[in-house]
Design brief:
The complex is a heterotrimer of chains A (96), B (562) and C (199). Chain A has 96 residues and is mainly alpha-helical. Chain A has 2 domains: 52 residues; 31 residues. Chain A contains 3 helices and no strands. The N and C termini of chain A lie far apart (53 Å). The N terminus of chain A is likely disordered. Chain B is mainly α. Chain B has a single domain, classed as Cytochrome c oxidase-like, subunit I domain (Cytochrome C Oxidase, Chain A). Helix content of chain B is 63%, strand content 1%. Chain B is built from 15 helices and 2 strands. Chain B has a two-stranded antiparallel ribbon with strand order 1-2. The longest helix of chain B is centred in the N-terminal third of the chain and has 36 residues. The N terminus of chain B is likely disordered. Chain C has 199 residues and is an all-alpha fold. Helices cover 82% and strands 0% of the residues of chain C. Chain C has 7 helices and no strands. The model of chain C has no long low-confidence stretch (mean pLDDT 93). Classes of the chains: A mainly alpha (96), B mainly alpha (562), C mainly alpha (199). The interface between A and C is large, with 47 and 49 residues.
């Protein structure tokens, strides 16, 4: 149980730099989309791009991809709880 | 099934034999390591049992202070008008009572004290996952408590906001709220670190043969609680930081004149503070689930439903916070949704109560103190739980909101629930920690006095609330006098019961009869170790789990209690 | 007492700590969401006053520092100690650049009378805009505190690496420090569009 469980190989530099490149592209995309007037969809687009970036960071930079399902489940739980906190507050703020 | 003992642990070199008949406890983890002073070996310990005891003693000391403040509040309210203190003092006293009892006593009570002492033993671990972090959390707790005490005597006087620190009053009052919220932040951080430690411990350090479905239900309760501590407490952290920013920087996030919304503060506050009541109650439910089968000599009814209901309470508890705000002016949709969701929490709570009662049914019952306290828990918690439905229903809540009905409900659940859970835990694991027994009869008498006292203290509050007596008021109309008198007399009976209980336990640890590893005949791992357990618990050999946590076949109660 | 080398346990502990950080900011995200819903026009308007160019540069700086620390972990695991140390130094340096740019942004706002509790701000701006700026300072301020803490943490880890205590077989401390740094990046990934791009 306490043995060395770090079986995975460290990620290659090329993969990490590739992820960084993708993050740069997404940053450019989100800045560009913000210039296009889409009304409320601007907010949706900005959050969607941010979430893509967040996924790249957690999966590759933070190696969540290589962790077992206990870790992945925990991370999912946290975002579900945060979504509940924000979403349920809107039962009040959206109808007041 | 096998009659073999549950763990192949060396019990031969137990130091029990040399234990003197009187004096302070000795042996096992109580022994000061060679070359260290007694005090130093405690203040720098990383042993989970010692850290748990450090917590327990501090918690009991603060509990005594909180009880004293509660008695002063009740004394003031024995008659209309001024009795023993002025209005501002009264406001400070009930704020202090709330802050001490919630943040320094009830939230750390069972998880930090008994969770630390018992949980690693129950899962067959050597210690918690991060022993030094564990000690650090205790120091944070002490630091937070110290700062809270400092806040009383410095600045513009003791805080007078109530423990909820509602804006706009908390943002404008001249009393020392800045320092008090800093104390709450630090206490919250301590609670988070304990929760973090427990989650990792339970995931990583269980004995190899202890699967999730063989874990004692107390550990299950702690696991669910730890997740609430980790996920809800940070929201309290940011809430009190914002109060601080509001006061010091003039941030204005909750100031209507600058576009802010005070109701949003209430949302943030209750996003933590509602789950916090499950931090208070779920570990107590775990204690009760561990105690009842031992004294009914019967496997627990519905092990898996109890375990899952702990997780269900933890999750559902994060969906219902706004039921504290039905009359705050939030939207009607929110009132309806949160009222509906609130009733969902009643389901897992009721599942537990029914399972406990079913476990008792046709059991071979021994009326020992841990069971008496547990029965007290079931009765008082049910009283609190059922009146909780009155408060959860939006229509009825409007009638009794901010009245003594709420005060009564809360104290039935927290004192009658968590308090009795703590007392049950103290009486249940006392022989394990000290290797001695207290006087069982006196402990039972104290329990009965406490149940009577509590009902007399808090039941009149339900009636007062229904008649419209508002909470937190310093003065009241003459028609409420009789019920207030009954309640105050009840507070004296409760105090007498507490004093008797404390004296009996104190006497037990000085002069109690020595006992063996397993006086109650329990089946969980901690009872396979000598009492008191050795510092390194099970030693280098992982214990072998060969039976379920409530499988009593072949386990006898010891002579001392028989 | 035996010493556990439970890497998975240490990492799990760090992740759980990061969860608490996410929810600490989560409280502010709740407030942001509620006020954005309430004052969409004012948020739009106030957001225009922020310097998108500086915000974008800072995003690039922070993501790049995140790359450096991820590469540092990879380098240490390959036993390329000198490269790992250099990458940690670069991470800290980029964090410093981020703070310097932040400093110029904030002082520019202060010169225009935009700071928490400012009478000028209260007199010349609509309530929704005041809320926007309060949130801007609260959230980027709390984030900046985390940047500073992260720099301190990485600096300490660097010292441990120099001492040989953190090395290719015992690298979990650097990995956990990296996780913390990625979280700081992660929060910024959301703060950037919420404040700079909503206009």
């Amino acid at each position: 149980m306490h043995a060395h469980e770090e079986g995975h190989h460290p990620p290659s530099y090329r993969l990490l730099i590739g992820v960084w490149g993708a993050l740069m592209v997404l940053t450019a995309v989100t800045v560009w989309v913000a210039q296009v007037p889409l009304g409320f969809l601007n907010v949706v687009a900005a959050m969607a791009v941010a979430t893509c970036k967040a996924l790249l960071v957690t999966l590759f930079f933070m190696h969540l991809k290589d962790e077992n399902w206990t870790f992945k489940g925990m991370v999912l739980l946290v975002f579900v709880i945060l979504a509940i906190f924000i979403g349920f507050t809107f039962f009040d703020t959206a109808y007041r | 099934m096998a009659e073999i003992p549950m763990a192949e642990t060396p019990m031969a070199e137990t130091p029990m034999a040399e234990t003197p008949m009187t004096g302070t406890p000795d042996g096992g983890f109580w022994t000061t390591p060679p070359g260290r002073s007694t005090l130093g070996s405690w203040l720098l310990t990383t042993d989970h049992k010692r850290i748990g005891l450090l917590y327990l003693w501090c918690i009991l000391a603060f509990f005594a202070v909180g009880v004293l403040l509660g008695l002063l509040i009740r004394l003031e309210l024995i008659a209309p008008g001024r009795t023993i203190m002025a209005q501002q003092t009264y406001n400070a006293v009930f704020t202090l009572h709330g802050v001490i009892m919630i943040f320094m006593v009830v939230i750390p009570s069972i998880p930090a004290a008994f969770g630390n002492i018992v949980m690693p033993l129950q899962i067959g671990a050597e210690d918690v996952a991060f022993p030094r972090l564990n000690l650090f959390s205790w120091y944070l707790y002490i630091l937070g408590a110290a700062i809270a005490v400092v806040s009383l005597f410095t600045g513009g006087g003791a805080p007078d906001t109530g423990w909820t620190f509602y804006v706009p009053f908390s943002a404008t009052t001249s009393t020392n709220v800045n320092v008090a919220v800093l104390a709450v932040f630090i206490l919250g951080f301590s609670s988070i670190l304990t929760g973090l430690n427990f989650i990792v411990t339970i995931h990583r350090l269980r004995a190899p043969s202890m699967g999730w479905t063989r874990m004692p239900l107390f550990t299950w309760g702690l696991y669910a609680t730890a997740w609430i501590q980790v996920l809800a407490t940070p929201v309290l952290g940011i809430t009190v930081l914002l109060i601080f920013a509001e006061r010091v920087l003039g941030l204005g996030l909750f100031d209507p004149a600058r576009g802010g919304d005070p109701i949003l503060y209430q949302h943030l506050f209750w996003i933590y503070s509602h789950p916090a009541v499950y931090i208070m109650i779920v570990p107590a439910m775990g204690v009760i689930s561990d105690v009842i089968p031992v004294f009914a000599r019967k496997n627990i009814f519905g092990y898996k439903t109890i375990a899952i209901s702990s997780l269900a309470i933890a999750f559902a508890g994060s969906l219902v916070w706004a039921h504290h705000m039905f009359v705050s002016g939030m939207s009607d949709v929110a009132v309806m949704v949160f009222s509906l969701l609130t009733f969902i929490v009643a389901i897992p709570s009721a599942v537990k109560v029914f399972n406990w009662v079913s476990t008792l049914y046709k059991g071979s019952i021994y009326l020992d103190p841990p069971l008496i306290y547990s029965l007290g828990f079931i009765f008082l918690f049910s009283m609190g739980g059922v009146t909780g439905l009155v408060l959860g229903g939006a229509g009825t809540d409007v009638h009794v909101h901010d009245t003594y009905f709420v005060v009564g409900h809360f104290h039935y659940v927290i004192f009658g629930g968590t308090g009795f859970g703590l007392f049950a835990a103290m009486h249940f694991w006392f022989p394990k920690v000290y290797g001695r027994l207290y006087n069982l009869k006196i402990a039972n008498v104290a329990a009965v006095i406490l149940v009577i006292g509590l009902n007399m203290l808090y039941f009149p509050m339900y009636l007062l609330g229904l008649e419209g007596m508002p909470r937190r008021y310093y003065d009241y109309l003459p028609q409420y006098t009789d019920l207030h008198v009954v309640s105050t007399v009840g507070s004296w009976i409760t105090a007498a019961g507490l004093a008797l209980m404390a004296w009996n336990l104190w006497r037990g640890l000085r002069h109690g009869a020595p006992c063996g590893p397993n006086p109650w005949g329990a089946a969980t791992l901690e009872w396979t170790l000598p009492s008191p357990p050795p510092t390194e618990n099970f030693g280098p050999v992982e214990p072998e789990v060969t039976r379920g946590p409530y499988d009593f076949k072949g386990i006898e109660r010891e002579e001392v209690v028989a | 007492m035996t010493i556990h080398r439970d890497y998975t346990g240490s990492k799990m502990g760090m992740w759980i700590f990061l969860f608490t950080e996410i929810l600490l900011f989560g409280g502010l995200f709740v407030i942001y969401a509620a006020y954005h819903h309430r004052y969409p026009e004012e948020f739009h308007h106030a957001s225009k006053a922020l310097d998108t160019a500086m915000g974008t540069v800072n995003t690039v700086v922070l993501i790049t520092s995140s790359l450096f620390v991820a590469m540092a972990v990879a380098a240490l695991r390959r036993a390329e100690d000198a490269r790992a140390r250099l990458l940690v130094v670069l991470t800290i340096a980029f964090a410093g650049v981020f703070l310097v740019i932040k400093y110029f942004e904030w002082t520019a706002k202060f010169h225009h009378g935009i700071y928490p509790g400012s009478a000028e701000l209260a007199a010349t701006h609509a309530p929704g805009e005041i809320v926007f700026y309060s949130l801007y300072f609260a959230m980027t301020g709390l984030h900046a505190v985390h940047v500073i803490v992260g720099m301190g943490l990485l600096g300490f880890i660097l010292a441990r690496m120099r001492a040989g205590a953190v090395n290719s077989t015992d690298f979990v401390f650097l990995e956990n420090g990296g996780l913390y740094w990625h979280l700081v990046d992660l929060i910024w990934i959301y703060l950037f569009p919420l404040f700079y791009l909503i206009a």
